[in-house]
Design brief:
The chain contains 11 helices and 12 strands. It has 344 residues and is α/β, with parallel strands linked by helices. Strands 3-4-5-8-9-10-11-12 form an 8-stranded parallel barrel, surrounded by 6 helices. It has a two-stranded antiparallel ribbon with strand order 1-2. Strands 6-7 form a two-stranded parallel ribbon. The two termini are 20 Å apart.
Length: 344
């Protein structure tokens, strides 16, 4: 067993992560209009696996062409996507990293050219954005099926974890927030109605996943607007769907509406703590965390079960190799890199 909490293993359902650091989904905008994975994606994710990251969650991967954030997003709306995504999953696993994929739909925030954008309600993101079409029950059923098929393809590609993207003002998040959901049917109004779409997506995804495969949900725990959602609201809605088998909540915030966020190191930690306590679910927390000692403190004090590093892992794929001595621990280096280990 490792001396530090940071480098200690973690059991995510039936999968063991070799440490508690996760690379969260970050869009790379490096696919073609066909949504196919490229050499960039293979090198990008493999490098972080070689750097020792415990789990990688691949960027938001669109379950429909109209679900892309941009025309250069990865896609999983076709069986043709499986091969390229599978190559990334297979390579990451070779280096002992757990590899997951985030299934997403941009909703009203789709900026891919030529697409008719959809949302719970016909409210544009801002004055420069297109007005989305309010979804009909048939639209909702179509998107739910797209998530089901996306999950089926993710399993076939060899991913070990699936994360449902319900954050950052994209489609599922738009249903959850009262700022973007003004429906008067069974999908709008009270929290139990606003969470219905997420429930249907989770149900569909779980139907095609192996029973022992973990499912994560990423949420925006804070809308930063008084009339919007706050951590307690997200916890209430998560409690309504956790019976479906959510294995971990990836806690983020913002981007539902265009308001400034005053970010600082650890600015999302209290949101994660609230959700962890109110739901009893394990959580992943982050937000401008760069210091190994800060990550260790978060884990030691039970504020979160895993820590995600986004920008820091973009800057330094080998962050964990340098973090180990700072938390008075050791990490196994790749054989090819051992001569660079200052402790050898």
């Amino acid at each position: 067993m490792s001396k530090s909490k940071l480098l200690n293993s973690y059991e995510l359902k039936n999968i063991q992560l070799k440490n508690r650091i996760v690379m969260p989904p970050m869009c790379m905008y490096s696919a073609g209009n066909d949504g196919m994975a490229t050499d960039f994606h293979l090198v990008h994710y493999t490098t972080r696996a070689m750097g020792g990251v415990g789990m990688i969650l691949m960027e938001a991967t669109a379950v429909e062409p109209r679900g892309r954030i941009s025309g250069n997003d990865l896609g999983i709306w076709s069986d043709e996507h499986i091969e390229g995504l599978g190559m990334i999953a297979q390579t990451a696993k070779q280096y002992g990293t757990v590899i997951g994929i985030q299934l997403g739909h941009a909703g009203r925030k789709c900026e891919a050219e030529g697409e008719t954008i959809i949302a719970p309600s016909a409210i544009p993101f801002d004055e420069n954005a297109k007005t989305p079409v309010a979804m009909t029950p048939e639209d909702i059923a179509t998107v739910v099926e797209s998530f089901r098929q996306g999950a089926r393809r993710a399993v076939k590609a060899g991913f070990q974890v699936i994360e449902v993207h319900a954050a950052h003002g994209y489609l599922i998040s738009e249903f959850l927030s009262p700022l973007t959901n003004q429906r008067t049917d069974e999908y709008g109004g009270m929290p139990e109605n606003r969470v219905r779409f997420l429930r249907e997506v989770l149900t569909a995804v779980k139907q095609v996943m192996p029973a022992d495969m973990p499912v994560l949900v990423r949420v925006s725990a804070e809308d930063y607007v008084a009339e919007g959602n706050h951590p307690e609201d997200l916890a209430e809605m998560l409690n309504m769907v956790k019976d479906l088998g959510i294995d971990l909540v990836n806690v983020s915030s913002g981007a539902v509406v265009p308001v400034p966020i005053h970010a600082f190191p650890g600015y999302q930690l209290t949101f994660a703590e609230t959700i962890r306590k109110a739901t009893g679910l394990p959580v992943m927390a982050g937000g401008l965390i760069t210091s190994p000692l800060m990550a260790e403190e978060i884990l030691r004090n039970g504020r979160a079960d895993l820590v995600f590093l986004g920008r820091e892992l973009l800057r330094n794929p080998y962050w964990l190799l340098q973090a180990a001595p700072m938390v008075r621990d050791e990490i196994q280096w790749l054989k090819q890199y051992e001569r660079a280990n200052p402790n050898v």
